[in-house]
Write the structure tokens for this entry.
Amino acid sequence: MEGPAAIKCSGRLTGNWYDKARQNPKVFCGLSDVTALANAIYTKTGLVTYSGPHFTVFGHNKALEYTTDYFKKCLFVAEPFSVESSPVYYDERKEDAEERGNEGWWIMQEGESTGTIVGGNLITLNLLQGTEYFPRLKVASFFLKITTKSHPGHLEITSSHSFCNQFFLA
């Protein structure tokens, strides 16, 4: 869902609430359209945000054990851990959604890194380009989330545009 909700989320970026958020940090986690707000919070405050399940995901029975296990590890485990891809996924958040086998991660460049990781939904992240809310990308790792319903050439076109952006060249 990369559209109206992303625009609404982007509309929440302005204001003078960032200092209050920095002084009173909370866990902020979401996916897809929340990318705009999560990256803005990180950029303006330096606070850690999470790309992961929105609270509504926990109301579904599908793949809940995998989701809950990694959610708890991210928030409550101090030592490093490896993340394995889920063996299955669902294209939709509905009780009758079809279970699909997961082939694993789509790795664009293998390797190891330490440091900050930023990213999120590619289309939503592109809404921030050229604004004060777009993260400065001198980071160790960058991740992109795209939907399986996207046209195959969409990733190439959108990412080519993104990587030519001045922030990626900084």
User: Anything to note?
Assistant: The chain has one domain: 4-163. Strands lie at 29-30, 50-51, 88-90, 99-101, 117-121, 141-145. DSSP finds six helices and six strands in the chain. Residues 4-163 form a domain with the Rossmann fold fold (CATH 3.40.50).
